[in-house]
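agent: user wants the full assembly modeled, not chains individually. Plan: 1) parse entity lines 2) check alphabet per entity 3) run joint structure prediction 4) return tokens. Steps 1-2 passed, two entities, 804 residues total. Proceeding.
--- entities ---
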Amino acid sequence: MFRLPLLLCGLLAASTCLAAKPPVRAALKDLYFSEGLYHAYQGDYFDAIARLDTELGQYYGLDEPGLDSLHPHVNQAEFSVGDFELNYRMHRRAGRAIKAVLEGNVQPPVRNEAAYRLARIHFQKDQPRDALTALERIKGKVPEAIRDDLDFLRGNVYMAVGRFGDAAQKFKALQNAKGFEGFASFNLGIAELRGGQEQDGLLSLARAGRTGSTDPAALSIKDKANLVLGSRLLEAKKPETAKQYLDRVRLKGPFSAQSLLASGWADAALEHYERALVPWSILAKRNVTDKAVQEALLAVPHAYGKLNIHGKAALGYGRALEAFAQETEKLTNSAQSIRAGKFLEALVREELKQDRDWVIKLRSLPDSPETFYLMELMASHDFQESLKNYLDLETLRKKLDSWEADIEAWEEIIARRRAYYQPLLPDIDRQFRMLDSQMRLRLDQRDRLDKRIKSMLVAPRPDFLATAEERVIRGQLDNIEKRATTRAGKTDPAILDRIQRLRGVLAFRIHTGYDRRLTDAYKNLQQLNGVIAALKKQYGTFIRTRQAASQSYEGYDATLSRLRARILEAREKSATLLARQGHLLEQMALNELEQRITRLEEYQVKARFAMADSYDRAVKAQEAGGVTK
Amino acid sequence: MFRFLNSVFLLSLLAVHLPGWAAEVSREQIKGLDEQVQEIKSDALGIAAELNRLEEKLLYPSNSQLAVFVSLAPGAKFRLDAVEIQLDGKAVAYHLYTLKELEALQRGGVQRIYTGNIRSGEHNLQVSVLGKSASGAEYRNNASFKVTKDVAPKLVGVTLAAPGTANQGISLKDW
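--- prediction returned ---
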């Protein structure tokens, strides 16, 4: 009888620890990756994946990804996407992404980490054989950060495939590992019990039940260890020892009700019914929705009966019947409310997302019978997963609605931009073409000057560096010479001499000042380069602005209409899935409630018989007392 | 009676883990639906990525884009209440932090607080921080920075350090 719960307990503990641990803070050099983490740390995995996917897509599209800020963290980013996908319950996609890393050309530590993550996915999806195959791929160096997690996973996988000895070895090695206190001991105990090492198993569970941590998860596993150990000992007919462990379970923890019930049974087994009444009476005062409380309501009068206080026992059964009747009515109302579709409406209440305690508060809302048993339903893993899927679908529905509105707004923006730019652009383009041709002309001139100066460095050409004044004077001298020759029919040697002298002076000045002039010309060209650079910058700015103007409204139509179609399709699909998932949740809830009603009806039958029996015994005892008198 | 109740108790231990409705809602049904939900999530993520790219291109072209990111210095344990960003004297972003957001920042997440468009050239960026120090005292801090925008998208990281620490204050980094 205990085997199955023990195994399940073991797996539950394992999964508690396998849940994504907060990543260690490391300085990232990529803003977008860090932005993805910001969303993920808030549990907003959709935005985290979308952000990081976009970033990775851009990274792989780069010509030189080595220069990108994501480059040093690209493996980490790939793993993070996988983690986010797992947290967003996209196991298939996460598995594919990690397999891609595993099969890529990567270093052994990276490959080993990928294999570990893949194994974890398989294990979480209840595929321990596949998890084992993935673990067997791990060879060589394992990153320090995952070493203990890997061993813990190995232990759990070994246990799931029936290799209890190997599992125990792994858990034993983790006894002192930080973060695994309690968990490793608990799972070690389960592995040993399942491997037939009864005594060792009990000792390990006892060790897990003494963990000194104050962490809520560790305290919870501590309670669980004591409950399982106590229940095991109770089954082995060692009620005295069992009670010691059962009484260690916290009165306010999640295992409190079951431990109080079991503690009472330990006393009852020792025939200490008056002591059994202590935990059972505490329990009987709690919320009757809890199955353990319902049982305590029967156990209390049962103890009174054993103590021969049949009158009190009869009254106790009467109270139990009353409580069961009220509970049955509550269950029936709840079922009716769920059938009326109110359950799904309650599940998507905004308060549920804002405050985890709201789930607990829901049960006390008088006008919401549909949510009275939400907490109890949440105890089932499948219900929880289905509920999360339902809530995810609801969030997706809202996102798709908002995206459609975005597209409409963008189309309006585009239309306005088109209306503004289209009439302006032809005139701007015409003016630009004129300026462009002028600019090209000037640029050609500058290039010619540059070429000429460079050639003068090799073959000096002083004439090229004559000033405008000198060129005018040279022209004037040519004119004077021409005029002097033409007027007299012959040339006056004196004038010619003077002209020649003046030409000589001019040539002397140009030649002697050549070096300085060449330097000045070079400097002037440099200055011109500055002006040209500013002009080119302005030109570039204009081109970009002009392009931006066109790009602000051109080329979006096809993309937007394709996106709109995808959104519509996704909306239809998500609406269908939302309805199906909702129906499934309702079905689960109704089945659970109906089962509870059936059980309560059985309890009521038993309680009625027991009450009648108690009354009979009370009357007989009274009569016997009278006869004696 | 004892036997009956004891067996009920043992069943209750089982019931914590075994869903009672298994006979009517099959595992295959749950699994099949779960796979379809995974597919629609994948489709939606594809749409979101494309919308992100389109939004950036349409609303924040690279030649005018400015994005401001906020992070906390490692170990900064102060309670950050609000951050205001002013650009050239005009308030462009104001954010009040929830506990979840603060924890995300403390764990190394980086928040994109503002994305907008500015002209190329030099701009004044003013950051104002409001919070409480570890001792519970009110903490206010302001800092001004010069930001130069060119043709590429401008990414600016604002790092906030805790009051009273060696590197207290607001620092700015160009990315």
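agent: reporting back. Chain B touches chain A through 70 residues (CB under 8 Å). The first strand of chain B starts at residue 65 and ends at 72.
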